[in-house]
Write a structure and sequence with these properties.
The model has no long low-confidence stretch (mean pLDDT 89). This protein is globular. 14% of the residues lie in helices and 0% in strands. It is built from one helix and no strands. The protein is largely without helices or strands. It has one domain.
């Protein structure tokens, strides 16, 4: 279990939480985002278990949430949940020979 970038899985080795402007060294994605927080939960209202937190619309963008706590977990790549997008990507791969 470690702290890592939500997008590429690069490990965050610095003690403490990242600041709002800090980004992943590998993919340049923001690190202080809802997707990296212990309170993030897709199954609850506003996708946040912390009731005192202000709602954040863009879960993958840096924010000023004072309740942010970097989650420790095993990295799992983001899932592609749109079947049309998956189909289109497969067709593009076939078309360009990838």
């Amino acid at each position: 279990m470690n702290r890592h970038c939500w997008k590429c899985g690069a490990e965050w080795t610095i003690n403490g939480n990242p600041g709002r402007g800090e980004s992943c060294d590998a993919c340049r994605a923001d690190l202080r985002v809802c997707l990296n927080c212990v309170s993030y939960d897709r199954a609850v209202a506003d996708q946040c278990r912390e009731r005192r937190a202000d709602p954040v619309l863009e879960k993958d963008k840096g924010n000023f949430c004072e309740y942010f706590d970097f989650i420790r977990r095993v990295y799992q790549p983001p899932k592609n949940t749109n079947p049309r997008e998956s189909s289109a990507r497969e067709q593009m791969k076939k078309l360009f020979g990838d």
